[in-house]
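Dear Dr. V.,

Thank you for agreeing to look over these. As mentioned in my earlier message, I'm a first-year student in the group and I'm still getting used to reading structure tokens, so any feedback on how I've presented them would be very welcome. I ran two proteins. I've put each sequence directly above its structure. The first is here:
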Amino acid sequence: MLKNINLKSRLLEERSRMIKQTDMQSWLQSIFDDLDIQRESILQTLSNAEDDVTNHFDIDKVEVDRIFHIDQIRKICIDYRLRFLETKYFKGDFPANAISKIRQLEQEHTTKLDGFKIVAPSKLFVLKKADDPLLFAPMGNGYYYLIYKWGNDIHPLRKLLVWPLKNVGNLTFSTFISCLLLTYITSNFFFNGKATIAYDIMLFLFYFKFAVGYILFYGIASGKSFNEFIWKSPYNKVR
């Protein structure tokens, strides 16, 4: 039986591909070294706090398994067609444990956390549902600290099901293969076992034109976007 996908585990796997376990401590130290260098520059150049927020964490108290780079978050969001947006766009409810975790971190690190972002399916930014949201706080320099995870794990087939929607190329390929299989399955039914290559091509073109027309109509009507950039789009119509 297929198990649901835990997004935190997938993020850890994605990070482990880039960083060897033996280099973890030096990697962590390098993050904070870079942050110390860039904090002064960020404070001087940012004129609007909403453009970017840098939270100050105590290096001795952070959990290394909770630190992720924007590239790793982007990869997971694109693979599973998720969003990574500011919490002001989130329509779900924040559990009491998440609030308690924020307060705990603020006390431990003697700081005031801000600029929260969340990873969740698009519908969670429109409707109140619970499908594995991940709450992050920015650390600066493209790094985010995972504060809390709640809700349900992602279905194991979600990555496969949303693959055609990643971009136009995937969508075209999926449509072509689906129509090809449909032609093969139904050819004998329509032509009583007397189908020729010409008949099969005609049937395939019928299926393909119908599928393309339906996709275009459905896409325009529902505001669907078939690209990899919706992971950071705040617009409701782009799902």
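The second protein is here, in the same arrangement:
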Amino acid sequence: MGKLAGKVALVTGSGRGIGRAVAVKLAAEGAAVVINDLDEVPATEVVGEIQAAGGKAVACVGSVVAEGFASNFIQTALENCGGVDIIVNNAGYTMDAMIHKMTDEQFDAMYEVHLKAPFQILRAASGFIATAAKQEAEEGREVFRKVVNISSVAGIGGNIGQANYASMKAGILGLTKTLAKEWGRYKVNVNCVGFGVIETRLTEATDEKKTVMVDGKEVAVGIPTKVKAGFAKMIPLGRAGSPAEAADAVYLFCCPESNYVSGQILVCGGGLSI
């Protein structure tokens, strides 16, 4: 029995990369997981992987910025798994540009996915959380729930070419600290993990122009090889982190040992200064 046995976890953007690693980690510790991705194929693949390992998972396919997604996401957990115990707001991508070249569309896109979507998901979960917490208190039980929001070293220290992304990742820190105060009475630990350089398709070293489609937008992925090498020199541990290592940092805020930790920001960056 894992430390999360009997818990229900919801992870946005969990069909690939860090989100997938988080979902697999939480499932390995016993949680039933609601998998989300823009595309059905990666979502169902992760569900199958978890089920093949003996775990429980269900897919909720769709964009986190779509109208009605938040309520559908929460309802999927309630109808298929019977509750909501852990929410990991992980979905996101980047649309970089220097500020004099950045369009309103680029700025608004980062707001929608990195700040508004987590807000809407947490708001959608608030009714269930308040009701469940009240009932548990009346029964004399102290049941802790977890929210882990994902930020970045860019949101803490800024980053050239990322006025939009850094602004929203800074905003998620304010949301985290506010919800930690609002939901403390419900026994909800609300924390945030800020990632440094983690190996995903968004950060792979490449000298080719690569793009992916996200919600109908063509998004550049990859980092020039020389720039990536420069990042490695800035990291005291000497390399980028793996998705599994990123997932381990998220897990620290999901396990029972963090029941008296709330409103905190953990940087998972190999010692990268900010």
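From my reading of the second output: The helical segments are 17-28, 40-52, 69-81, 104-138, 153-157, 163-182, 225-234, 243-252. DSSP finds eight helices and nine strands in the chain. Does that match how you would interpret it?

Kind regards,
E.
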